[in-house]
Write a structure and sequence with these properties.
This protein has helices at about 1-25, 90-105, 165-175, and strands at about 30-35, 40-45, 50-60, 60-70, 75-85, 115, 130-135, 140-145, 150-160. By secondary structure, it is an alpha+beta fold. It has one domain: Protein Transport Mog1p, Chain A (3-Layer(aba) Sandwich). A 7-stranded antiparallel sheet has the order 3-4-5-9-8-7-6. The longest helix has 23 residues, at about 1-25. It starts with a helix and ends in a 5-residue tail after the last helix.
Length: about 180
């Protein structure tokens, strides 16, 4: 009987050590990333890849959308930015971009939960908005903010049942530092 108890204790000890090591290995390996010449910095949970594409914001006007993002723990972390054309206001471009983003997810403005979100060093107009959209397929949390003549969208995308997304978005968004 004592041999069985000793054997069970050894197995439990080894199992707790293994589980402890797994728990100490972060699935999200946060690192500081400098985004651009404006000095915007943020935390990303993985090494981001970069891309750019044209985005039409009016029938006769398109802008370059610069993107960086990565995938970690089944979630996608992105940061997109675009320069506001001189002929438009940041509010006009922001509204157009937000509507286009919601439409690409099959969501309407009334389905999105929007709250103001304070950023470090944030004195921007309009104030940063945090937007949450969730449906049967996926959920996304986005943070929209303006620095000088550029609009930014930080976002975390995941499946609708992803329980870690809110905590990951909280870490991601609170890690954004403005110049």
């Amino acid at each position: 009987m004592t041999k069985k108890i000793d054997c069970l204790l050894q197995v439990l000890t080894v199992l707790s050590l293994v589980l402890g090591m797994v728990a100490c290995s972060p699935a999200l390996n946060w690192r500081r990333v400098t985004v651009d010449h404006a000095g915007v910095q943020l935390l990303m949970p993985c090494k981001p890849e970069q891309a750019s594409k044209d985005m039409r914001i009016q029938p006769e006007l398109s802008v370059i959308l610069k993107l960086q993002g990565c995938e970690a723990s089944g979630m996608h972390f992105t940061l997109a930015r675009m320069q506001v054309p001189k002929s438009l206001t940041s509010t006009d471009v922001l509204t157009t971009w937000q509507k286009a983003s919601l439409a690409s997810m099959g969501a309407e403005q009334q389905e999105a939960v929007t709250t103001n979100w304070p950023l470090k060093s944030s004195k921007q107009t309009p104030a940063p908005d945090r937007v949450l959209v969730q449906n049967a397929q996926h959920q996304v949390q986005m943070l929209w903010f303006v620095v000088a003549d550029e609009i930014y969208q930080a976002a975390v995308y995941g499946k609708s049942n992803e329980k870690q997304l809110s905590a990951a978005a909280e870490t991601y968004f609170t890690g954004i530092e403005l110049p």
